[in-house]
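Protein: Diguanylate cyclase
Species: Chromobacterium sinusclupearum
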Amino acid sequence: MPLPHPDQTIAEIASCDLLSCPQSLSIREAASRMMAAGCSSIVVRHEDSGEVLGIWTEADALDASLGRVDPLLPVGQAVSAGVVLLPHDMPLLAVVREFRARQLRHALVMKNGAPLGMVTLTDIVRNQGLESFLIVKRVRDLPGQPARILPAAASAQEAMRAMREHALSALAVALDDGAYGIVTQRDVLRWLAADALPPTLGEGCRKPLIGVADTASLLQARQLVQQHNIRHLAVFGEHGQLLKLLGFDDIVQGIEHEYLHELNEALRQRDHALQQSRHSLLLADKVFESTMEGIVITDRNGVIQSVNPAFSRITGYSREEAMGQTPAMLKSGRQPPEFYYHMWQTLLRDGCWQGEVVNRRKGGLLYTEHLSITAIRDGQGECLHYVAVFSDITQRKQAEERLHFLANHDALTSLPNRTLFLERLQLAVDGADAGGYGVALLFIDLDRFKLVNDTLGHYAGDQLLIHIARQLQSLLLPGETAARLSGDEFTVLLEGAAGEAQVAARAQAILDAITALSGADGQQMFISASIGISMFPDDGRDADTLLVHADTAMYRAKQRGKNGFQFYTADMNARALERLKLEYSLHRALAQQELELWYQPKVALDSGRIVGAEALLRWRHPELGLVPPDRFIPIAEESALIVQIGNWVLDTACADIRRWRDAGHLPGRVAVNVSGRQLKHGDFTRQLEDMLRRHDLDSADLELEITESVAMDEAGGMVDMLRRLQQLGVYLSIDDFGTGYSSLSYLKRLPVRGLKIDRSFIADSVRDNDDAAITRAIVSIARSLGLDVVAEGVEDEEQRRFLRELGCNCAQGFLFSKPLARSQFEVLLAIQASQPALAH
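Structure follows.
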């Protein structure tokens, strides 16, 4: 900020056009003189001695105009304040301190005992070269209340009362045409001097109201005030709304505190700088020597004249080796000649340049530096030196590159992630579209990967994913991409695909490579995958569509038995949409009471009588009719609806058991299938206990059937869950025994009481020696462990006799009864209750 010259005095800035009057002059006459002279104040003197008694201002005119003071009274009786007297030769710097210390806004400048002129804070600020200060200050930053606006029909008295009540120097008038006018203290002074008030503010105000946007600088505001010779300026908002009225005094008041503070601080700093000049020179030399940034000083031709120790530390060159050389000694060759040409063009034009440069250390290693070059000019603008300051940012650049890599790659396998893969896929599609060649997308999902995590642990699962990523990368040709989307899902992008035969061969090679990992790291596990394939342009013309279609084809490959690949076909979408529609309908099935429980009797093979039943879920869709369980149960499992549906099945079965018990018809237990997800959701044991209590059932009335794979889920804490159910008294049995991964040592630890032989073994047991042997072994195992056995899917008499000979005592199947709706099953129970047992 510019400082006042030390020899400048107050007399040089004082206004010598001093308006004064005797104390006996009437207030109205004083106002007339002020209007004629264009002054905002008048000095009131003693009638005889000429002594200054005080000043009378425009603000004092309000009381006279409102009738609070008689306009004909002598102005000496209405003087509002005394005036501070300052000598004419007082240095301006001392005047600044005086105004600041005593909070002054006016002072009379005295010479030889007589007033020389009036000086105001505005005069001081005007003489300090404030343009550079005002240009960075915004009008909106000034404090102040919102503009007070009166309608055009308001009276002058209303305006003056508002100005006096709120200590306003001006207010706005809303004109009928939507514009604004203004009424100021100068207008009040004019009305007082003329002894005449306008009928309305619309007629008495000045218009138009000149203003600026609130984003304008204070310099613009001051220039506009001076240009139009006005004392107030409107401030308008973004949408043209009037925010406030700003006078030049407001500008001064808004900045004076900060200005004077900075002025005093500048003076203090200047004095301190003069006292510490020698110390500062020494300090500057120390900074040059000790700063962590390298510094190079050259002459105007770029010849090195000085370097600091940091230069030597970063580059490896000593001061002696650098002196007389040019910075070109550090060139790495990574920047083309055009780079340096543009650098020098910018330096010559702007006097400075900054950017990043890859340079070479003395030892040959490359490093990245952030470089700033500044031209040092003399008073005539001639370049004398160039100063270059640089810092080694190699580690920061490496960290940035690492962060960029992590943002676009999978942290476990280092393969591209979904974001980067989709970018590359879209680029490949765009290139193929322009070049007229094909693109294939392979969507790979591991089969039964969850079993690996659950049985061998997540570390083994992670190691398997890393091995698969390496296998995929080893199979890639130049320009091809493998990525990990999430979990156990991978993708491979094949550009320039020649046809389905070539893509099929690549897919089979990937499957073979994945299965070859079976037994990796000494783990005995079989690994396979399912692959879905979509082709550009036949299966989609953008990245998202191709990915969705490849995903759809992958699910079809899983449905067809896993460990295979499947090309996308248009009908897959129809099936996928049908599945989505079915899932949506399943969400409402419970609320719409579309689910039903059917029952299939369990029959004693010796007597043929019903000894229990299995509850089977059916869905009666309002449009599709009776939906088979194998169509909607997998959907319920995947969408987590199985928990709600399973709870409904249990509750409904308990209600039916209660009714049949009360009727005396049910001779045994009712079995209900329970999913693993249902067992793990919440506190299943407590929920079941509450359900039995609510229906007043004994726990022995209910049997829970659990699949073999769920029962063997040791990692999921299933053994503990089954033991809690056993303690509750519920009968537990293993469903579809023999179809999973049975372990006899594990089976004997399970708290189960029964096994159900899967129907696949029963179907060919009398014709296939292997199925007969398996069935015989299961019955033998069950008897050895003291477990009950139930055979599923018994459809003919020959199968019944075979099972009886093995010692299996209970079965269910079409030979005895197909699954029946509840009402039909109740009829069957009633018939049996009324008849004695039939001999077989």
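Remarks: DSSP finds 32 helices and 32 strands in the chain.
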